[in-house]
Amino acid sequence: MPAATELPHPERASLEIGAVLFALSDPERRELVRELREGPQDAANCMAIDPALPKSTKSHLMKVLRESGVIRNEPNGRNRRLTLRSDDLESRFPGLLDAVLGPR
Prior knowledge:
- This protein is α+β, with helices and mostly antiparallel strands.
- It has a single domain, classed as Winged helix-like DNA-binding domain superfamily/Winged helix DNA-binding domain (Arc Repressor Mutant, subunit A, Orthogonal Bundle).
- The protein has helices spanning 17-23, 27-36, 55-68, 86-92, 96-101, and strands at residues 41-42, 71-76, 79-84.
- Helix 1 (17-23) runs antiparallel to helix 3.
- It starts with 16 loop residues before the first helix and ends with a helix.
- The model has no long low-confidence stretch (mean pLDDT 89).
């Protein structure tokens, strides 16, 4: 099996509040972001996403979060490593994550 490929991520300066709020509007995506607040996770081991969801739905959840700039989805061997872009989000939209997700 080939190694995972690099995916595009928006630059910090191009993050848009509307896209971020849309990405955080879905309960499944919000739960994934809450889990990533605790630290990076391998996409295959992420517990926040319902295991009964089809793989295509899981991929779409992660794609929306990545394209909006909420998470990074990077190669990690054959797997993918998910990380929350909390520094980028706090820099662009101070207090947003706490306002949407609640304090840690």
